[in-house]
Every structure is written in structure tokens, then in C-alpha cells.
Amino acid sequence: MLMLMFELLSMAERSTKASQSKSGPEPHVGIFWLLDGTLLTDSTPLDQAEPYGDHLTHPRSHIDVWDSWQRLGKVPVDVPYEEPPRGRVVFNRKTSQSELLADKCILERKSVVAEITNGLGLPKNVTLGSDSHYRCSKCLFGSDTEEEWDD
How far apart, in whole angstroms, are the C-alpha atoms of residue 94 and residue 99? Predict the structure, then answer.
């Protein structure tokens, strides 16, 4: 009898592990930047996200995270948070879909969008969009260093 219980428990554990691997990593919401070709993210698991209207969102702001990273030496102190292309992933509770809002310099680069969606464990049906909050200095003012953003 004890052996049968052990076998059933073992089968249940294998079944649970198989279903977890099929569902993939837990989705996150978060903020991100593309700095000199490197993606920088700060995220929160969806089950810990904060409500904001019809959405669930990351609790920390771009300016606060950037300031913290500057103090830690993770990003240059002479680069303001709004200069590199940036964006945010939120979860729309009405549509049950993740939404990736970003600077067009990011949205135009499929490899970067894929890196964001994979890194945050997002499903394939992510809604992509732009937002006036997420426009880098190149998009706002033009730049002589256009090649920095090219894929």
C-alpha cells in the first residue's frame, strides 16, 4: 500500500512538472531601456503587479529605477533616463493581454521586441504600441548618431 502511494505521488509530481514546463515562465510587467544596444529591464511578476485603471503595472517608475541604477553604477551618471529608447509592459485586465508600449526605435527592431517578450515571459499575442511618454531624444530632437539605433 505504501509503495502504491509513493508511485501515485511520484506520478502526480511528474504531471505537475510537465504542466509547469508547458506553461512557460511566469509573465512579468516592467520597464525597460535600450542603452548602447543592451536591453536593461526592471520587472515584477504579474501576480505582484499593481492595479492602474484597467491595467496591472510595474510599481517602479523609469526615473526612480534609472536614478537607483546611476547610484549603483549600472548606467552612466551623465545620461538622463529619458535619453535612451525606453518602454513599459502592462497587462490589460479587460482584454487579458500584455501590452508592450515603447519608443519606435525599439518597436522597429524585431529582435529587441523578441528579447523583451522572451525575457518577461510574455505570450505570443502581445499587443505592441507607442506612447508619447516613450520617445527617446533621437526621436524627439533628431541626432547625428543615427547608426547607434540601427539593427
Answer: 12
Distances (CA, A) of 9 to 5, 14, 115: 6, 9, 38
Sign of the alpha-carbon torsion through 65, 71, 72, 77? positive
Residue 34: strand pairing partners = 39
Torsion angles phi and psi, residue 9, rounded to 5: -60, -45
Write down the residue that cell numbers 496591472 correspond to: 56
Cα–Cα distances (Å) from 103 to 87, 137, 149, in that order, read 6, 10, 11
In this structure, are residues 30 and 88 in contact, taking their beta carbons and an 8 Å threshold? yes
CA–CA dist 28, 74 (Å, integer): 22
Domain ranges in the chain are 26-148
Query: What pLDDT sits at residue 25?
Result: 81
DSSP for 13-60?
Answer: HHHHHHHHHHH-SPPEEEEEEEETTEEEEEEEEGGGPEEETTEEE-SS
Residues in the chain where the model's pLDDT stays below 70: 1-24, 136-137, 139-151
Element (H, E) at 99: strand 97-102
